[in-house]
Amino acid sequence: MNGRFSCPKLFRLTLTNEKIAMKNQWNDSDAEAAVKTYKDVSEDLALRVYTSRLIGADPALVLHGGGNTSVKSSAKNRVGETVPTLYVKGSGWDLDTLEPPGLPGVKLDALLKLRQLDSLSDEDMVNEQRINLLDASSPNPSVETLLHAFLPHKFVDHSHADSILVIANQPNTEELCREIYGDTFALVPYIMPGFLLAKASAEAYEKNPNVRGLVLVNHGLFTFGETAKESYDRHIEAVTLAEEFIAGKKKKSLTPSNGSKIALGREEIFAKVAPVLRGLYADQTGLSWTVHQREDSAAYEFASSKECATWSQIGTVTPDHVIRTKQKPLLLNLQSLDDPDALWEEISRSLDTYIENYHHYFQTNKQAKEVEARQKSSNQNQEALHGVSKLAPRGVVEARQKSSNQNQEAPHGVSKLAPRGVVEKKELDPLPRVILLAGVGLITIGKTVKETGIAADIYQHTIDVIHKAFSVGQYTPLKDDDLFDMEYWSLEQAKLGKSKPKKLQGKVVAISGAASGIGLATARLFAEHGANLFLLDRDGEQLSAAKAGLQKDLKASVVTHVVDVTDEQAIQTAFDHLAQTFGGLDILISNAGNAMQGRIGDVGSDELRASFDLNFFAHQALASRAVKLFLAQRTGGVLLFNASKAAFNPGKNFGPYALPKSAVVALTKQYALDYGKEGIRSNAVNADRVRTGLFTPDFIKERSAARGLTPDDYFKNNLLEKEVFDTDVAQGFLDLALAEKTTGSVITIDGGNIAASPR
User: Fold this and answer.
1) 228-247 vs 449-472: helix axis angle to the nearest 10?
2) Do strands 290-294 and 82-88 pair parallel, antiparallel, or not at all (unpaired)?
3) CATH class held by domain 258-361+433-477
4) Does the fold of domain 258-361+433-477 match that of domain 28-247?
5) CA gap 369, 177 in Å, rounded
6) What is the pTM of this model?
7) What span, in angstroms and rounded, lies between the C-alpha atoms of 33 and 729?
8) SS3 698
């Protein structure tokens, strides 16, 4: 909490059936520190933040926005009146990083009055919650706000605890809950979150007001209390009892499949498969995707088992996960790893089958929901007809009957007089987000690195819950029709956000010489446009500082690799790291270089070779490996080289630098010629007199004095009389990266130097 009091971040990802008691993390000193830290809000709210963060810190309780908490307190309105208030977690906030603004205050009395209603649509529910906010600028309160409101307790905690989901997804959940908890917890059957679930939960509590909480079938756990500590203690106790019950059951063994006998190692398999996945997904959507492999022995064992074929296809452990993982993963047990073309076809066929099944899932459930809505509307119309006054004009009755008949006659299309309950649903993209690959384990794919991480975290826990569920008894999560409701629920989709993607979202960009100067400026600009960065440099300290700055300022996705680009084996290792991290590559910016000087006739062979190693062969080594990834993805790609004006206009005693840079210009054109057919573009930037590490103070003094200029005038000695900055060169690289119909080009960024103009 900004370093002001501790809140332990727990990691419970080593998942076994050993007896584990969840540790209660409440600490009196930390609780007191929280009250002091949040001195600008009430003690109620400060302690609500404290225990919310305790729950959020444990991934065995909640993951990535899951769960919600509340406290009933009071606030002063504008005229000084005391208003009973429900503070409840708001949309967009995670429990582990919750702050007071993430608990919007809602007028409690107004919420309680809603319980009198027989029904309340989701849209009306959200509207009622928003119009009763104390502050109109607050985030939307949780979709489970009414459930928190209808329970009478001061503090209420809700999680999707793994151990609870093991029990809540059993066919005999009620029997198991009675065995574990006796009569201290009430059971609530599955109802989609919203008004009806809130009413049902309140009624379940009222049947036995002595319960400490509620177990929601196929959903999760609610506990409550009059203090923050009491509600939190009850939560941890309930989860611990479930964990101990599960640990008492014998863990069911998994049967290895043929896929577990693959001779290749996990990294080798992933390196072959990941670029194919990126290419196939790009082909389906026209977008760039990132691929993530989660190192986890349990996931490897599960994906490589015979049980995986059935267990993984049953459904999600809680409906909230469906928007992150789809309703089931794609299963791959590949037989064509040694043949790139056959591998492409094998994965493509599996993906096509998954897509077809998703289309069927969508169409079947969409039509069923439309028929259900029309039937409901028809029944309402019939009831309305019976209520029509006997004195109503005959034409009114006939018109209403005709409208009802028309709606009945067209159950599969949208009627011109479509009932209010029928909302046309548009199919989401049908691509799997989770892939279980025999011989490798858990792979996730998403439009951003964050998406892949979220899906991996969720499914890692899903594997554990499923395995434990079958060890306890059976695994019976929600069926497809209920999952469909959740996946296509507007309030759930809102969690994903609808912001316009940045130009380079999903693109993977490798930059050499990235720790400073032009390389760092380019990294920053590409990160601003949404790129995932793989930064290479030989200066590890500067590279770490560059990464930290980019992550702090831009929340960029950055991976670094310390490498000497003149070492070809080291470059291969770097590209292996790149493939393991992002699954492939879209843009290479080969930037690293150094300006070596000397009168050409006096320069020794070793010096000249050293310059060529760095200023030419390193570019070739990077580009050749990038092209291999481009070809494996079949998505084309972009090669961008940092050339130099010296290639066209060499300076006196600058031959050791100019000669290899001239070769880089030729290299640029050769790649354009040789790989244009595969959609690989190759271009270069010609820059001059940019203040970077190449220009030492002595070098600047020498070059400016030779021209009779001051150092500042030296950098402005061009046709435009303007200094060129590293950010200008970065913009040139970006422009070329986005120029989809430009290849074999060299653009000049030097303020104007006719002698260096390409011709």
Assistant:
1) 60
2) unpaired
3) alpha beta
4) yes
5) 33
6) 0.87
7) 50
8) helix
